[in-house]
Specification:
190 residues, mainly alpha, globular
Length: 190
């Protein structure tokens, strides 16, 4: 789409400015949030990203927002703070979801390097992105191996097995991180 073809150097500053403005705008100006929501819906429509895909991504991240907003609910004046956190966070999440789904990650990293973001931060982001897929692949492999050995469909053994799986995944990812770091140091990385 046309939004996919826009340069990352244009999309990233617009997205960051939109996020900053949304965070700093007081909730007492609801017209601003309605305009931002309409703008994001139009951007999603023009980008031709399927609405159900965007909704699934948003709903996947929304429980984290809800947990934080619920903590504010028990404070004095919590209702207004709850609404503020929910609205602002949802709009910011949708902005970042649209940016990440219309711009290749390598282009975003290139823009960050050109804008003189510290090299260590850019490298950390690049390595995190690269090894996230390795970690997902490893967890799928462990899940498949567990399901091949498990015949019971009861919940209690499944939770215990899931806890074991998460523990093994943590150990394997830590060992892999140490091996990768040793290999990088051997090649002169600092």
């Amino acid at each position: 789409s046309g939004i996919h073809r826009l340069p990352a150097a244009a999309k990233l500053p617009v997205a960051l400015a939109l996020v900053m403005a949304t965070v700093l705008m007081p909730i007492s100006v609801p017209a601003y949030f309605v305009v931002v929501a309409v703008f994001l819906v139009l951007a999603a429509a023009f980008s031709r990203i399927p609405p159900d895909f965007l909704l699934k991504r948003l709903l996947f991240l929304e429980p984290f927002v809800l947990c934080i907003a619920l903590l504010a609910l028990f404070q004095p004046g919590g209702g207004k703070t709850f609404a503020s956190i929910m609205v602002k966070s949802t709009l910011c999440l949708l902005t970042m979801i649209l940016l990440s789904n219309t711009t290749p990650f390598a282009e975003l990293l290139r823009v960050l390097r050109r804008t003189r973001v510290p090299a260590l931060l850019v490298t950390t982001l690049a390595l995190t992105y690269r090894y996230l897929f390795v970690l997902i692949d490893e967890s799928e492999r462990l899940q498949r191996a567990r399901s091949c050995r498990t015949f019971a469909r009861r919940r209690a053994p499944a939770w215990k097995s899931l806890a074991t799986l998460v523990g093994r995944l943590f150990v394997r990812s830590s060992e892999r991180a140490e091996r990768i770091y040793a290999a990088m140091c051997a090649r002169g990385w600092k």
